[in-house]
Design goal:
This protein is mainly alpha-helical. Helices cover about 50% and strands about 10% of the residues.
Length: about 150
């Protein structure tokens, strides 16, 4: 059963101000050993050791396939893919994030997120990307210059 808490949006400028939403509660993180143990208790003829060996092999195979340039999809769980990050770019990204952070506040973070999701949706529905990005940029400028309320 999923455990959750109810939280209310308290940002007065947000379109959902005053509305409530559910947020899941994470009580612990299970490591590979605990997962193998848990699997062995589900009417499995396999022991914890066999399960851990299978999971370890699965992880090794996923890594191997990723290094071959393939994504790995495990239905109802995730799509695994590689990302590359170099040190110089990471430092530039950190500088950008540090400078950008002063413009993001609790009064505009949710509208910024909504705007990004809307642009993603529009492009996914074959809208003209140049027009979508231009509109996105204009609306983003307005959101970024808003002062925190």
């Amino acid at each position: 059963m999923v455990r959750y808490i109810l939280q209310q949006i308290k940002i007065t400028s947000h379109k959902c101000f005053g509305k409530w939403f559910a947020k899941n509660v994470v009580e612990e993180t299970i490591d590979l050993d605990a997962l193998a143990e848990h699997m062995s208790h589900h009417n499995s003829p396999y022991s914890k050791g066999v399960n851990k060996g299978l999971l370890t092999d699965m992880i090794a195979c996923i890594k191997e396939l990723l290094l071959e340039g393939k994504n790995v999809k495990i239905d109802d769980l995730a799509i695994f893919s590689l990302g590359i990050k170099n040190k110089e770019m990471a430092e530039k990204e950190e500088d950008f994030a540090r400078n950008f952070a002063r413009f993001v506040n609790e009064g505009n973070i949710l509208p910024i997120s909504d705007l990004a999701n809307l642009a993603i949706r529009d492009i996914g529905q074959n809208a003209n990307a140049k027009i979508v990005f231009f509109d996105f940029a204009l609306q983003m400028i307005v959101l970024l210059i808003q002062k925190q309320i």
